[in-house]
Amino acid sequence: MAKVGILGCESVTHEMDCVMIGCLGNARSRAGKFADYPKDEPVDLVGIIGCGGCPTAVGSDRIWQKVKALVDYGIDALHFTSCLVQLCPFREAFLETIKRDYPDLKVVEGTHPFHDTDAFKAGTKELLSQRMVTPQSMNDLVFKKIKLPPEKSEK
Ligand code: SF4
Question: Where along the chain do its domains lie?
Answer without folding.
Answer: 2-142
